[in-house]
Amino acid sequence: MHVSSGRWLYGLLLALTTAVLWGILPIKLKEVLRVMDPVTVTWYRLLVAGLILLAWLAANRRLPRFAPLGRRGGALLALAIGGLTANYVLYLVGLNMLSPGTTQLVIQMAPILFLLASLLVFRESFSLGQGLGVGVLLLGFGLFFNQRLDELLSSLSAYTTGVLIILAAAFVWVFYGLAQKQLLTQWSSPQIMMVIYLACALILTPWARPLEALQLNPLQGWLLLACCLNTLVAYGAFAEALAHWEASRVSATLAITPLVTFASVALAALLWPDHVQPEQLNALAYGGALLVVGGSALTALGPSLLAGWRARRARLALLRP
Fold this sequence. Notes:
This protein is an all-alpha fold. 76% of the residues lie in helices and 0% in strands. The model has no long low-confidence stretch (mean pLDDT 83).
């Protein structure tokens, strides 16, 4: 079982880096998807990130050895590869149907599902505070979708389909997250990500159309490159954060990702109105987004908050005459 190193400040900074990079990613992807299909965009992102890691690890003579993994490690690696491949493709398919803000808020279910799964796999406790956090999260989703709640519940429109696809992307991401955390007992984060990226790219190769990149204008070309580098840095930071910090705290930090997206969309819509459309949400929906973020953080940090409260009560009891 993987045990975190305890370097919490380093883990926090890495998790914040991941949250910011994931927050701005859908804005860039949305522009690239105007020309390229989701599978090809995913193929480029994985291939470029994997080749960069391969060159770096080879130069430092740190290429991973597969023999120590054994049969169990091989199964975990296959689970991580399948989970991340499905997550990438499903996320982009859903993003094609939704706005960046909506997509990023719905994908927020991924760290929550990851946390709930880690309760079973890593035997972490589930407190009353976490239950309250899940309730706040669900209330937030209800408020966020208040303008289109009837559509979501009564018909299988493109919007509803997009939401369901993003939920599926969140679900399969959990398999990647759990398997990747366990692989840290055998390999370093860069080694794991290199193998996963290149294997995912190989799986998608039969369906990729690389020549679509020639149809991109200069701005879209730079954005595609930025998406590839985002993949490398964001997931590298996430993998390394799990090595130094508990899964629950990493999940809580990633809760701010939708807020980064909404703020980035608002700023980009002001600066580049021809490329980025502002979110069409009312005040109740924005309030719901805040509740989703707060509920996510509370769900992840519930045990720590409860333990801190109990410790303070114990100290106060000792100080009483």
